[in-house]
Structure formats: structure tokens, C-alpha cells
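Memo to structure team: turn this sequence into C-alpha cells by end of day. - J.P.
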Amino acid sequence: MIDYIKSKRTAQFVILGTVMMILGLISQNPAPLLGKVFHYLAVFFLGYYASKKAVHDSIREKSPNVDLLMILAALGALIIQEESEAAILLFIFATAEVLEAYATEKSTSAISSLMSQVPETAQLLKADGQTVEVATSDLNVGDVIVVAKGNQIPIDSLAMTITTVNEMALTGESIPVDKKVGDEVFAGTLNEGHAVKLQVNKRSNETVFSNIIRMVEQAQSQPSKIGATIDHFERYYVMGVLIAVPLFILALYYLQALSFHQAFYRGMVLLTVASPCALVASVTPATLSAISKGARIGVLIKGGTALENLASVDLIYSDKTGTLTYGDFQVIDWQLPKDILPVVIAMEQTSHHPIAQAIVKHFPDVDLTSLSPDVQVQEEAGMGLVYGDIRVGKPGAFTNYKDPNAYTDSLSAGQTTVIVSKGDTVVGYLTLADQVRQESAQAVQDFQKENVAVMMLTGDNEAVAERVAKIVGVQSFKANCLPQDKIQEVQASQAAGHSVAMIGDGINDAPALANANVGIAMGSGSAIAMESADLVMVQNNFAKLFQVYQLSHRLNKIVWQNLFFSVGVIIVLVSLNMLGLLDLTKGVIFHETSTILVILNGLRLLK
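Reply from structure team:
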């Protein structure tokens, strides 16, 4: 509300100042004194908020900024009684500031419009079957809500009945998605099926939408490398201009014998056109536009540096499950003692891994009432789950275990097998099948056309890895990987001079994600993987990554266009002033127009 009032008051002052400037220009010839009064009023209204901002920012940053140069130029024009020039300078500057603010706001409007679609209330289903309207912030995990057909889903939940959801607001995909019982649905998406019951699985501040806002806010406070360099350069550049202008005035006055009025006027022109406004605006609006574009297609980008690094990537390591494959496993064969099966199901309920979820889904009727509701399961990254003397995990974790039934020797080629042991003895197994994503195969081809190699690192067995690698078309793969193996692969490639991206979704992927030049996590993955990553893909869709890779190259191209253009304009305008061919009004017009142009150029990334 405070920001709204402030922006409204700023607009009112700009309008008042504009009116005063026009009255001053009209009356300055027939009534010079009245014209001066109007021009001074115009300078006050047009420069009031700009001066406050310039002084405040300079004090906060402990160094002068580009806005301060413009204010000083206007004050200098008043000193030599060029009131109309001062008013016109501030008018153009204030108008450009308003347009710049509008253009920058456009770069984040995708996020604002996204959030405005999330309902603030939900229909909570009570134990007696009645519904009551409550705030989404009051909902807890486990609550059941009802969403009517055509209404938006208010909070991330699990479907309790079959429905169809349009996720375009979140992922950019217009084709509705069928949701089965147990599938996750997201806040802000549209229920296009019949009325559906949903079980809340996240608090309102933990939803995908709230994560988008949080990550965008983090991105705004984390400039890209080139943006940070320009911010650092700005401080010294502005100080250089403040030193150069008095020297320039003295040189004109003593060496070229210009009058003090002429020399001082030319100095004010230099103070204006040498200001690096366009240079400073070359990076941030474009970066925010790219981040907003990424969010619109379902990829959360944690800052400009992540996009810069992605553009230079020449090697991508990818996990298999949920990335190159759907991660929608189905149990096709199993062998377990009756007394062990309920324990295994209870253990798998504590994990978010696709294999664990598939096992739980395959045994919906297993009676778990005899087990303690507080099953304390330990998850060992890359190995599996442990509860007491029972271990569930991949075959490689059981090489030294007794196996009287030879379960580990009869693994199905090309399939995923989970081994179960009690004590030091293998007592059973579950075999699951997964499907390869067609869009993953296309994305791998697209990356390879851009000379970016894609390699697969998976904790699964050799046969499964080989089958997926052939279908997807990755250039090489490594199976039976532990977390440390993935880190070693990433670090070895970096030591060889490669810029490496790593894609994963599990706890075992988090260390590799943190070590890679660009870490990319899947939205359905573990919280630690998403925290370790630089990019988060809301949907497990490899093709989205290629879109963001293209976006990163477009961003780099636009940033460099802006930098060359803004520097070129400064050089031309300063040169014209040195030759005495530029007045203050034209200098301001060209200078501020260049600033607006680089911002609008950055907004092209929103297309």
C-alpha cells in the first residue's frame, strides 16, 4: 500500500511539473519573471522525488550514482539561469524514469499475474461432511478440501478422486493433465474435471507458487556476474565524471577562452550525456525478463548468474529416474515373506522417491495397523532405506549379504530391482519397470546439435542404464553410481576444462548439483536437491531445459547488444559535446531515449 501511494504521488508530481514547465515555456517571452516562477515550480515538482532517491541511494551505497549526475546537471543549469533547460532536463529525466519503472515492472508482471490467480480461501471438508470456507494459510497438511469443476486449486494437494487439471498457468502447457488418485495437483491450476476431493500435502507458504516468488526475489538480489561488474564499475565511473566535469569547464574557460556561462553550460551537458544510465540498465531488466519467462514455462531460475553459466555449458550429466524416464514405475514381479511385506510398505511410505511411491501404490490393501505409526526410517543416500535390521535398496548394496535363494543373481535385464534383507540375509525382491520420456530423447538430440554433450549417471544397474541410454541417445552413461561417484564425474570433467550442468532429483544427487557449474533439480524431487540447485523444473520435463538453454543464449546476446549500444551512445554524445555541437535539451533526449531502448530490448525476452 505504501509503495502504491508513493508511486501515485510521484506520478502526480510529474504531471504538476509538466504543467508548470509548459506554462513557463508559454509565458517566458511575454512575462519573463512569471516564466521563471513557473520553471522553478516545474524543477521542484519534477526533481523532488528524483533528488530524494538520488541522495538516499548515494548515502546508502556510500558513493554517488547516475541519478545524482542528472540532478547536479539540472542544478547547474539553474545556477547559470537556464531555468527552461533545467525544467526540460528534469521533465525528460522524470518521464524516462516513469517509463523505465513501467518497463521493468513488465518483466515481473508474469509472476504477479501468476500469484493473483491463487485463491486465498478454500472449502475445507469437515468430519460431518459439511464444508466451511477457510483461509488457505489456515490449512494444515492432511486436511481435506473440495474444489468444484471450473475452480482453481487453492493449495498443493494430492488427488483423492480422478480429475483433469489445466496446468497452463504454472507450466505453460495448454493440454489438460489427467490426475489419478494420489497424484499431486498444484495451487493456481484449474480443475476441469468434476468436483474433486484433495488432501493438502503442503502449507500455503510451501507451494510451488510460493517457491516461485521466493526464488524470483532471491534472483533479484543476486545479479549476474556482468551485472555485478557494471554495478562495481558504476561507482568509480560516476566519481570520474564528477572529477572530469570541473576540469572540462576550467579547460574551456582558460584554454579556449569561452565565457564562464558557455563553459559551465558545456560542463552541464557533459555531466548529463556521460551519465551511464543506459549502461546500468543494460543487464537487470533483461535478466528479470528471462527469469519471468522461465517461470512462465515452469522453470524457476535462481538468479542471473545461473543463466550466464547455463549459456556456457558444454556437458550435461543427467540422472535417469524422473528425468530421462517418467519415474512412473510399476511393480511387475516381487517375492517377499508375508511378515516382511508390511514393514517394507511402511518404510517406502517415508520416501518421496518414484520407486518408493510405486511400491506403495502397488500394495494399497496391505494391512499396516499392526505396525507402529512412528516408523523411524533412515535413508542412506544412494543406497536405500533402513529400519532396524531390515534394509531395502538397490542390488549393489547387498554384495556381501547371504542370498540363499539367489535373488541377486536373477535380476531382470533392463528392469529396476529392489532387494530386501533382514539382518545379513537377502529375503526378497521387487522388480519394477519404467518408461522413457520421448521429449527427453528429443531434448538430448537438440543439445547435441548445439555441441552440448549429454551423459547419464544413474544408481541403477548396468542393464537398465544401457536400455535407457540407447533409447534416449545419450553419448555415454555410468551405472551403479553412488553420490560420491557423481561428484567425482562432475569434478573430473570440470578439471578437464568443461562447463558442467547436473540434473537430478534425489538426495543422492544433491552433492553433485551443488558442485556443478549449473545444478538443475526436478520439482518433484527432494527438498535438499531443490535447495542445492540453480534451476528447478516444476515438471520433470527435460525439454524445458533446452528452452531455458536457448533463453540463456538470447539473454547473453541482448545484454551485449545493450552494452555496445549504451557505450556507443555515450561516446557519440560526449564527442559531440566536445565539438560544441550538442545542447542540453538534445543531450538529455538522446541520453534518456537510449536508456529506454535498452530496457525495451530486454523486454523482448518475454515474448
